[in-house]
Amino acid sequence: MSRIAIVTDSTAYLPSEAVEQSGITVVPLSVIFGETSYREDVDISTASFYEKLQATADLPTTSQPALGRFIEVFEELSKEYESIISIHLSSGISGTYQTARTAAEEVDNVDVYAFDSEITCMPQGYYVLEAAKMASASETVDTILERLEEMKRSTRAYFVADDLSHLHRGGRLNGAQAFVGSLLQIKPILHFENKRIVPFEKVRTKKKALNRVFELFAEDAATGAVIRATVIHANRPEKADTMRKELADTYPNADIDVSYFGPVVGTHLGEGGLGIGWCKL
Ligand code: MYR
């Protein structure tokens, strides 16, 4: 039995087999349609979420897990583990990490280390999988946290939304004041800077934006470094698979998968969003 438990939140959108095999505990965030709250991947699947989104005029909102839920999870794990590493979506876009930190202070019989991934989706998932692998190899908390910081330094993610108004409405788009009058006309490439989502470059069409994201990926991949990458999509699996194949054919040094923007992130990014995230191994 590993002495270190790994916890994350649902926005890592990890495949359920990986979660089960690695013994990871996932705390869900929720999407709210009208009066009804759905924990993502528990009460609502990603497919049903996008169906519901297409059928509703009242756009959903999201909420982070309650403090009490984190306390329950940490207390339960304290029965079997000495330490917990709890890895969360960027503190610049959600209060989840801060809530996990507060819960960590409330529990007595286990050491909880909350880790701000400063990103979300599968790039966050890569930290979680690495931490779980290291925990099962009996590495120490310090070694695992150092490795996660090292991964953070080489992690990149660039993404494009079909309609920026969702991010704007939810208050998750920073540094775009200049674009506000023309939110529907432009397709800026977005990325994380200092934990927040900001425009990286202003581009007029989605095609040009995605080509530029390919170029940014190429700058790292062309060095020959071993790269783990993910093409992330908001209900565009075929497009994501085409992108994955194109990248995999060009860069054999990159291990590329396809992942998705699930309900909570999809609420803010909107259907049709696409991106690539990667880190050097
Ligand atoms: C909450 O209610 O606390 C959740 C807020 C989630 C905000 C998500 C914003 C969109 C993130 C796009 C990420 C792209 C990563 C590659």
How many alpha or pi helices? 10
Q: Mind telling me the CATH class of the largest domain? A: Alpha Beta
The mean pLDDT is 94
* Gyration radius, in Å: 18 Å
Assembly form of the protein: single chain
CATH fold field value of the largest domain = Hypothetical Protein Tm841, Chain: A,domain 3
User: What's the total count of β strands?
Assistant: 13
SSE topology string:
EHEEEHEHEHEHHEHEEHEHEHE
CATH architecture of the largest domain: 2-Layer Sandwich
Major beta-sheet overview: 6 strands, mixed
Pfam families: DegV
GO molecular function: lipid binding
Protein name: DegV family protein
Organism: Salibacterium salarium
Write a structural description.
This protein has 281 residues and is of the alpha/beta class. It has two domains: 4-29 and 64-153, Rossmann fold, CATH 3.40.50.10170; 155-280, Hypothetical Protein Tm841, Chain: A,domain 3. The chain contains ten helices and 13 strands. The protein has helices at 16-22, 46-55, 67-78, 96-106, 121-136, 141-154, 165-169, 206-221, 237-250, 263-269, and strands at residues 4-9, 25-27, 30-33, 36-39, 61-63, 83-88, 111-116, 156-160, 189-193, 196-201, 227-233, 254-260, 274-280. Helix 3 packs across helix 4 (96-106) and helix 5 (121-136) packs antiparallel against helix 6. It is globular. The mean pLDDT is 94. Myristic acid is lined by residues 29, 62-64, 93-96, 120-121, 157, 159, 172, 197, 232, 264-265, 268-269, 275, 277. It comes from Salibacterium salarium. Keywords: Lipid-binding. InterPro entries: DegV, DegV_C, DegV_domain_contain. GO terms for molecular function: lipid binding.
